[in-house]
Amino acid sequence: MASATPTFSELRRQLTARTSLAPVYLLHGEEGYYIDELVKDFENLIPEEERDFNLYTLYAPESGIETVMDVCHRYPMMAERQVVIVKEAQAVRADMLNKLHNYVAQPNPTTILVISCRGAQAKGKELLAAVRKNGVIFESKRLSERNILPVISDLIKEKKLNVDAKALSMLRDYIGTDLSRLYNEIGKLALILGQGAMITPEAIERNIGISKDYNNFELIDAIIARNAAKAFTIIEYFRNNPKNNPTVMTVSSLFNQFSNLLVYQYTRDKTQSGYMDALGLRSSWALKSYEAAARSYNVRQTIEIISAIREFDTRSKGIGSRQNEYDLLKDLIFHILTARGIIG
What's the CATH number for 213-344? Predict the structure, then answer.
């Protein structure tokens, strides 16, 4: 049987290979993209010409648990298996979902039952216990800005591409945790560049439309170097190209940079591995930014800057200010560059 708690990539490989398939799968969690893709993979287990007979898509709130069990107990028509997909299970009460545990305890060996709780944690302790024993549970966790880089790196490797540090940061800053867009854009790069190619800032600018010279990566570099002229030039570019440069993404990047800098500054283990563990980094090149920033900003300045970023967030929502968001951003950059370490 398949691993009881596989990763997204592991589960996709198992479904593609069609080996060691379990009789029951429970998909749940906040990140909808992974669940949507896996549901497509389960549908693809049934050939196109058999789908009218051996592929069932039921909606839990409408069909009812008894109907689901009845369909699961049927046998496939002139085929090895049937697939029964139950969507919107998150909308059904826990006590109703628990009724499935009797079926899951003794599932039909020619049926693959897929229970989808898109965007929510699965309910029903008895059902969960039965699936853990006889099936597979996949939890689709929502990604944070802090752990998106390894996901982007893994996807690029999966597509047999390489990427340089600046290009990786550009993808993180401008696509963020939007997995659907991330997979689409990297898939597009794979088709255009071909296997073994290097994803560079130039390739991203040419094929995705993100400027290689005016982006959050370059802005942070300018701030770290205290290059005010370059920083304000980038802000003016953002102002003139707001669609591709929303202030929310810029401020998120600044907050991540300085909150991680504060972690770096307070880390007791001053070795490279100590810093990497504290920051959750998998490669040492990312440390260079924090090493340079620590030479430009002391702890008190970092704390003041984080406070200023939070104040920007409040004012950009119209609380205590009616300034244009890019004027506010310009003021924030000035504050960062001139921070004196005043706290309170």
Answer: 1.20.272.10
Domain boundaries along the sequence of the chain:
8-139, 143-212, 213-344
pLDDT in tens, 37-82: 999 999 999 999 999 999 999 999 999 899 999 999 999 999 999 9
Q: Residue 59 CB: number of other CB atoms within 10 A?
A: 15
Instruction: Please provide the CATH number assigned to the domain covering 8-139.
Output: 3.40.50.300
Class of the 143-212 domain? mainly alpha
Q: Model confidence over 89-148: pLDDT tens digits?
A: 999 999 999 999 999 999 999 999 999 999 899 989 999 999 999 999 999 988 887 778
The total of other beta-carbon atoms located within 10 Å of residue 140's CB is: 23
pTM: 0.70
Give buried/exposed letters for 185-203 (b at 16+ CB in 10 A, else e).
bbeebbeebeeebebbbeb
Q: How many Cα neighbours within 13 Å face the side chain of 160?
A: 6
**Cβ within 8 Å of residue 77, ≥6 positions away:** 50, 53, 54
> For residue 113, which phi and psi values (nearest 5 degrees)?
-95, 125
Token pair recorded at residue 197: 């190619």
pLDDT confidence band for 286 (50 / 70 / 90): confident
